[in-house]
Amino acid sequence: MAKPDRIHAVTSAEMTFDCPCCGKLSRTIFGEVHDPVGSIVVYLCQWTVDGPDHDANVDLLIGPWGDGTTAGDRALVSLLYRRSETSFMAIDAEPRLEKVPGLAAIGLARSEVIGSWIAQSAFIVVDVIWYDDPRVADLLAAR
């Protein structure tokens, strides 16, 4: 199988649950973003369906994957999708580490992301997810 010539998302699992604050249906989707040279970012997006008053979380696990790698090789970058403004903002990722147990050693602070190459990469990855992962359609429809 030939490698794709562009960065692209590959979807994987998803789960639903009741939002702890409002009881509405919430969804978490998982996937990977690959580039042509083989680098991978694992992502999860979490939002409340039909809950436009709730912002959505986008968590990105950055760093190497595969044989011989551990959580110590990866960091978590977290973004908040502001539905009311249809925009993203970096947030402190440390509190979100509980959502990805054992997959990243550290959660980057907002101040470590803003203005860095990490921010540029994170926003490119989010664009790819929004373009390639059809499961975000109900998130976008609830604006």
Low confidence ranges: none
Tell me the Rg in angstroms: 15 Å
Large-scale geometry: globular
Strand content: 35-45%
Order of helices and strands: EEEEEEEHHH
Compute the number of helices: 3
Fraction of helical residues? 10-25%
Number of strands: 7
Kindly name the structural category: alpha+beta
Mean pLDDT: 91
**Largest pleated sheet:** 7 strands, mixed
How widely separated are the two ends?
A: 38 Å
Provide key terms for this protein.
143 residues; alpha+beta; 7-stranded mixed sheet; 3 helices
Secondary-structure map:
Elements: E1 8-18, E2 25-34, E3 40-48, E4 56-62, E5 75-82, E6 87-91, E7 106-107, H1 110-113, H2 117-132, H3 137-141
Parallel strand pairs: 5-7
Antiparallel strand pairs: 1-2, 2-3, 3-4, 4-5, 5-6
Protein architecture, described:
The protein is α+β, with helices and mostly antiparallel strands and 143 residues long. Helices cover 17% and strands 36% of the residues. The protein has three helices and seven strands; from the N terminus they run E-E-E-E-E-E-E-H-H-H. It starts with 7 loop residues before the first strand and ends with a helix.
Summarize the structure.
With 143 residues, the protein is α+β, with helices and mostly antiparallel strands.
